[in-house]
Amino acid sequence: MARRCRLTGKQRHVANNVSHANNKSKKVQLPNLRRKRLWLESQQRFVRVRLSARALRTVTRMGLDRYLRENGLGVSDVI
């Protein structure tokens, strides 16, 4: 399974690990993903979603249905 938020599209970033001697080596920064069961009001059921902590805060505040509607996403994009 891809390490990607289903709502925001956040994914891993490649960055440099910089030592005290200014040597650089590649490192991977992973998004803060959580597996969560959210209530989908339009279908009167729970859906399991893998989403970032930032998206979880937003969905908690607005609700999943409103978030999907405002961002032009469908239920099939989340599941």
Helix-strand layout with pairing:
Elements: E1 13-18, E2 24-29, E3 33-40, E4 45-52, H1 53-62, H2 64-70, H3 75-78
Antiparallel strand pairs: 1-2, 3-4
Helix pairs in contact: 1-2
SS-derived structural category: alpha+beta
Order of helices and strands: EEEEHHH
What is the average per-residue confidence, as pLDDT, rounded to a whole number?
Answer: 93
Oligomer: single chain
Low-pLDDT residue spans: none
What's the N-to-C terminus distance? 13 Å
Strand fraction equals 35-45%
Rg over CA atoms, rounded to whole Å, is 16 Å
Shape: elongated
Largest sheet: 2 strands, antiparallel
The total count of helices amounts to: 3
Strand order of the largest sheet: 1-2
Determine the fraction of residues in helical runs and give it as a percent range: 25-40%
Number of β-strand runs: 4
Structure description:
- The longest helix has 10 residues, at 53-62.
- This protein has helices at residues 53-62, 64-70, 75-78; strands spanning 13-18, 24-29, 33-40, 45-52.
- Helix 1 crosses helix 2 (64-70).
- The two termini are 13 Å apart.
- The mean pLDDT is 93.
- A hairpin with a 5-residue loop joins strand 1 and strand 2 (24-29).
- By secondary structure, the chain is an alpha+beta fold.
- The strands form two sheets. The chain has a two-stranded antiparallel sheet. Strands 3-4 form a two-stranded antiparallel sheet.
- It contains three helices and four strands.
